[in-house]
TrEMBL record:
InterPro entries: DNA_helicase_Holl-junc_RuvA_I (IPR013849), Hlx-hairpin-Hlx_DNA-bd_motif (IPR003583), NA-bd_OB-fold (IPR012340), RuvA (IPR000085), RuvA_2-like (IPR010994), RuvA_C (IPR011114), RuvA_C_sf (IPR036267). It comes from Nocardioides simplex (Arthrobacter simplex). Gene3D superfamilies: 5' to 3' exonuclease, C-terminal subdomain (1.10.150.20), DNA helicase RuvA subunit, C-terminal domain (1.10.8.10), Nucleic acid-binding proteins (2.40.50.140). GO terms for cellular component: cytoplasm; Holliday junction helicase complex; Holliday junction resolvase complex. SUPFAM superfamilies: DNA helicase RuvA subunit, C-terminal domain (SSF46929), Nucleic acid-binding proteins (SSF50249), RuvA domain 2-like (SSF47781). The gene is ruvA. The lineage of its organism: Bacteria, Bacillati, Actinomycetota, Actinomycetes, Propionibacteriales. Has three domains with a flexible linker between the domains II and III and assumes an 'L' shape. Domain III is highly mobile and contacts RuvB. This is Holliday junction branch migration complex subunit RuvA. It is found in: Cytoplasm.
Length: 198
């Protein structure tokens, strides 16, 4: 298995990053929060998880080891595959997931696209004893200048399937929370929450 990838970021899209490792471009599927921390041409080290299927080998990349561990753990719950696991991490921080599961917070888990009421209850039931307590660490985040975060959050929302108009409204809704040093991952999660209420 490939535990991590280190190399130059060759390309970024809304859902993935291509990292050049030894002359080979490896495509890593990443959450918008992770992608927001990467820059084309810059060096990056990403923990990875490889999902092997009959017809594909898919590498998922993460901001840190905690995200990777959680991604692999939530897939042990029945009905949760890699796409849903990645959606969970796009909407919630690792500690947010732990807090929701430990607190039987079905409502928070159903904010994740692809998880309904029964799915959330099943995840809580199956993972409650194994998820562990929140670590208290915040999501590692790039702190982009001025309004660069607006574009990153907007692209992340569009990449998750929201239309541009709704994405723009959600970006405007979270703008007051941006402050001087915006945390793109946190703002993206806030934007997703505002869209789930609408």
């Amino acid at each position: 298995m490939i535990a991590f990838v280190r190399g130059q970021v060759a390309a970024l899209s809304l859902t993935s990053a291509v990292v050049e490792v030894g002359g080979v471009g490896l495509e890593l599927m990443c959450t918008p929060g992770t992608l927001a921390q990467l820059r084309t041409g810059a060096q990056a080290t990403l923990p990875t998880s490889m999902i092997v299927r009959e017809d594909s080998l898919t590498l998922y990349g993460f901001a840190d080891e905690d995200e990777k561990v959680l991604f692999e753990l939530v897939q042990t719950a029945s009905g949760v595959g890699p796409k849903v696991a990645q959606a969970i991490l796009a909407v919630l921080s690792p500690d947010g997931v732990r807090t929701a599961i430990a607190g039987d917070d079905v409502k928070t888990l159903t904010k994740v696209p692809g998880i309904g009421q029964k799915g959330a209850q099943r995840i809580i039931l199956e993972l409650k004893d194994r998820i562990g307590a929140p670590t208290g660490g915040s999501v590692a985040s790039a702190r982009p200048s001025a309004d660069a975060w607006r574009d990153q959050v907007h692209q992340g929302l569009v990449g998750l399937g929201y239309n541009a108009k709704d994405a723009e409204k959600a970006v405007d809704a979270v703008a007051p929370d941006a402050g001087d040093a915006p945390d793109v991952g946190a703002l993206l999660r806030a934007a997703l929450r505002s869209l789930s209420k609408a």
